[in-house]
Amino acid sequence: MSFLRPCAMYSFLVASPSMRWMPCQSGGFFRWPGLDGFMRLLLLALLWTMFSEIHYIPSSSMYPTLRVGDRILVEKASFYIRSPAVNDIVTFRDPTQLSRDKMDGVFIKRIVAKAGDAVEVRNGKLFVNGVPKDEEFIAGPPSYTLELTHVPKGHVYVLGDNRNISYDSHMWGPLPVKNIVGRYVMSWHRPRNI
């Protein structure tokens, strides 16, 4: 059975002394990882599920930053180390629902003000502490007016980038920080027809 023997080209390329330094020549490169490798993979999967989530964008409230159909990666660990900051895009549980299900009514919005700030919307501009904000990322200027609102301790003020159709703090007030699930990291899978 000569067809089972290695060909001359194989003997020349793989068995030559200059190729013996390659890790795949030892056979260890292709071996099953064993129990140690399986435990590492299990630990990695456990950490991935504890500290990150993947969500789907169902509405255009964050357009143009995020589009309908985008998949986003949300990390949940950084807010154990630091407080939410202005311009962070966060996912959170709906503060108007009293549901016990933690994933029922999860939204994504941008933080525009933190505790102690005063927020106001007039003449199509957002004012934080009396200073108009230059927001290049919004879809259009807001068509609504918001009276001066102070953000209490333990809360943030969140608005969608598509201000005129977003269900956000201008409708229900400041968001409690305890409702924040995680921080947006990246997005992918943008449908081409939208």
Describe the structure.
- It is elongated and about 65 Å long.
- The longest helix is centred in the N-terminal third of the chain and has 18 residues, at 34-51.
- It is of the alpha+beta class and 194 residues long.
- The protein has helices at residues 8-14, 34-51, 78-81, 169-172; strands spanning 52-56, 71-75, 89-93, 106-113, 118-122, 125-128, 131-132, 146-150, 155-159, 175-176, 180-188.
- The strands form two sheets. Strands 1-2-11-3-4-9-10 form a seven-stranded antiparallel beta sheet.
- This is Peptidase S26 domain-containing protein.
- Keywords: Hydrolase, Protease.
- It holds the Pfam family Peptidase_S26.
- Residues 38-188 form the Peptidase S26 domain.
- It comes from Stylosanthes scabra.
In short:
By secondary structure, the chain is an alpha+beta fold.
- Sheet with the most strands, sense and barrel status: 7 strands, antiparallel
* Tally of helical runs: 4
Regarding quaternary structure, what we see is single chain
Contiguous low-pLDDT stretches (5 residues minimum) are: none
Strand order of the largest sheet: 1-2-11-3-4-9-10
The radius of gyration computed from the alpha-carbon positions, rounded to a whole number of angstroms, is 26 Å
Query: What is the H/E order?
Result: HHEEHEEEEEEEHEE
Question: What would you call the shape?
Answer: elongated
Estimate the mean pLDDT confidence. Answer: 81
Distance between the termini: 60 Å
Secondary structure category: alpha+beta
% residues in beta strands: 25-35%
